[in-house]
């Protein structure tokens, strides 16, 4: 590194260059985020800084090396934004994505009464993002989040506490419906939906650093939906709603699968990229 190795401008320029060489899009933006993470400063505070301290520079170099190795930026930072929440993330869960907010948009459109005391169930909860976002909108609702991974369930509990929703949310580890009792008004799920054959085509951030059990769902990507649909009828209350996140082009197959399990599609919603990303179902009358 030429110039002052501790200088904020020099560090930012070097980081931008290395990130660009690693093939990352938006390298300057990512360099700025890494610099804010390394220093603990916001963007405005960084403008007043001329140099990094030794520990800050070491932290920046470590984060930069990890990002150039395609470790997701959210895993380096340790958190991600979802809906109106800030959530802790770890290698035990998928990183919350903006596409998944389409599930919450769909829910709000179909169940607009925010004071309703709904009982929610979030299957494959991960960080707890869907359940916690729903509870943040429905102030009298309660919910249960379930994940196969005990580490994910523990992380979701921490996120509930950090967002002051732990009095209305509980999280358990288990395989789909196995540890559950009772009925729920609304079931949400962002289950695995990637085909085995498509794994090699995923971005390295996803393929190499996020849990495969939360990504892959058999030869056609629909295995998790089959399992959920086979059991949902026993746990969904009368008039209840089932809302899925889906993969690209899966809507027609999933509508057929759901119909065979006694469900009718009542809404289909696109994400900001124009892709059908959420489907909502109710039981056939």
UniProtKB/TrEMBL annotation:
CDD domains tied to this protein: AdoMet_MTases (cd02440)
InterPro entries referenced in this protein's UniProt entry, alphabetically: DNA_methylase_N6_adenine_CS, HemK-like, Methyltranfer_dom, N5-glutamine_MTase, PrmC_N, RF_methyltr_PrmC, SAM-dependent_MTases_sf
Gene: prmC
Organism domain of life: Bacteria
Protein name, per record: Release factor glutamine methyltransferase
PROSITE patterns: N6_MTASE (PS00092)
Domain Release factor glutamine methyltransferase N-terminal: 10-78
Keyword RNA-binding: no
Family: Belongs to the protein N5-glutamine methyltransferase family. PrmC subfamily.
Catalytic reaction equation(s): L-glutaminyl-[peptide chain release factor] + S-adenosyl-L-methionine = N(5)-methyl-L-glutaminyl-[peptide chain release factor] + S-adenosyl-L-homocysteine + H(+)
Pfam families in the cross-refs: Methyltransf_31, PrmC_N
Annotated substrate binding sites: 190-193
MF (Gene Ontology): nucleic acid binding; peptide chain release factor N(5)-glutamine methyltransferase activity
NCBIfam families reported for this sequence: hemK_fam, RF_mod_PrmC
Sections of the chain in a coiled coil: none
Keywords: Methyltransferase, S-adenosyl-L-methionine, Transferase
Methyltransferase domain: residues covered: 120-206
A GO BP annotation: methylation
Enzyme Commission number, as recorded: 2.1.1.297
Binding site for S-adenosyl-L-methionine: 124-128, 147, 176, 190
Enzyme class, broadest EC rank: transferase
Role, per record: Methylates the class 1 translation termination release factors RF1/PrfA and RF2/PrfB on the glutamine residue of the universally conserved GGQ motif.
């Amino acid at each position: 590194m030429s110039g002052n190795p501790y200088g904020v401008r020099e560090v930012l320029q070097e980081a931008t260059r290395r990130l660009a060489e690693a093939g990352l899009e938006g390298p300057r933006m990512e360099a700025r985020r890494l610099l804010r993470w390394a220093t603990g400063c916001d963007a405005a505070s960084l403008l007043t800084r001329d140099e990094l301290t030794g520990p800050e520079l070491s932290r920046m170099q470590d984060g930069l090396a990890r990002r150039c190795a395609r470790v997701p930026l959210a895993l380096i930072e340790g958190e991600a934004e979802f809906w109106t929440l800030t959530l802790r993330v770890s290698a035990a869960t998928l990183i919350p994505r903006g596409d998944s907010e389409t599930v919450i948009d769909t829910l709000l459109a179909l169940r607009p009464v925010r004071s309703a005391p709904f009982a929610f169930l979030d299957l494959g909860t991960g960080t707890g993002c869907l359940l916690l976002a729903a509870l943040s909108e429905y102030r009298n609702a309660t919910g249960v989040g379930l994940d196969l991974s005990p580490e994910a369930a523990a992380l979701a509990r921490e996120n509930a506490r950090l967002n002051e929703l732990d009095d209305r949310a509980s999280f358990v580890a288990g395989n789909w419906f196995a540890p559950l009792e009772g009925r729920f008004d609304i079931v949400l799920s962002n289950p695995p939906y990637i085909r085995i054959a498509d794994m090699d085509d995923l971005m390295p951030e996803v393929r190499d650093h996020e849990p495969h059990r939360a990504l892959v769902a058999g030869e056609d990507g629909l295995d998790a939906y089959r399992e959920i649909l086979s059991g949902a009828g026993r746990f969904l209350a009368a008039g209840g709603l089932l809302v899925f996140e889906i993969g690209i082009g899966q809507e027609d197959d999933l509508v057929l699968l759901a119909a065979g399990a006694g469900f009718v599609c009542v809404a289909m919603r696109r994400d900001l990229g124009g892709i059908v990303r959420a489907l909502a179902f109710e039981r056939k009358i």
